[in-house]
Amino acid sequence: MLSNSDGFDLSLESQEQILPGMTEQMLKALAGSLIVSCQASGNHPMRNTDAIVRMASSALLGGASALRINSPPDVRAVRAITDVPIIGLDKEPGRMRNVITVRPDQAAVLAAAGANIVAVDATSEVTDDIQGHLRQAGIAAGVPIMADVSTLEEGLMAWDSGVGLVGTTLSGYTPYTLRGDLRPDIELVAALSSRGVRVIAEGRYVTPAEVRGAFDAGAFAVVVGGAITDPVAITRRFVAATTRQQ
Ligand SMILES: CC(=O)N[C@H](C=O)[C@@H](O)[C@H](O)[C@H](O)COP(=O)(O)O
Predict the structure, then answer these.
(1) With CB atoms 3.0 to 4.6 Å apart as the test, which of 97, 98, 117, 156 could cross-link to 91 if both were Cys?
(2) pLDDT, tens digit, for every residue of 195-235?
(3) 132 alpha carbon to ligand 1 midpoint, in Å?
(4) Pocket of ligand 1, beta carbon within 6 A
């Protein structure tokens, strides 16, 4: 049986390993809603904490229920302007891709900066022990964990460890899920949801119709990032529709 940390169906065995659970307030805030990921890294022109704060304010004005924010300084700055739930993460370059909050100390710093939930890389690419890895992060952070996964197996394992949310964030990014198309993995949302996992649809959502599709597949909430907050990517999409030779 799948167990989870919100107080339902917990065996004694899983209670010994309990992770911080989602509060009712957080669940109410997120259910059925849009979360906007406000991030910019490296040499991106928007890589500036004030710019991130302005993105976050704009997203909130537009009706976002919560925000996903990278790095402790950005989390701290956004926390100062809003009380909505912040999903914090700490991205750093890995071998082939950016990895997401891989160490417990990073999780603790994000929570101290004001993250209500900490997103953690829960892929077999970064750990042989997904459940132990998530428990360490959750215990260090003292706040609920969002497990960012790339496959159904990773998602089920993560959920069973007591995380608050499972995100499809990394589907298409791990070596074993790389694929040609850049579409969101709505099938993974459906597969996780049908097994009782509280799933956040995230990764490559560009159109409102795709967001609707994720909810139809059972998503608890949907995260949209670049399609809202990255003017470079948005411009590229329009330029691709022009007749000028690129
Ligand atoms: C793979 C990875 O590192 N994803 C990161 C996770 O936080 C962000 O770079 C994404 O922008 C975020 O997941 C939202 O996705 P999209 O921008 O596609 O809507």
Answers:
(1) 98
(2) 999 999 999 999 999 999 999 999 999 999 999 999 999 99
(3) 24
(4) 37, 39, 68, 89, 91, 98, 100, 169-170, 173, 202-205, 223-227
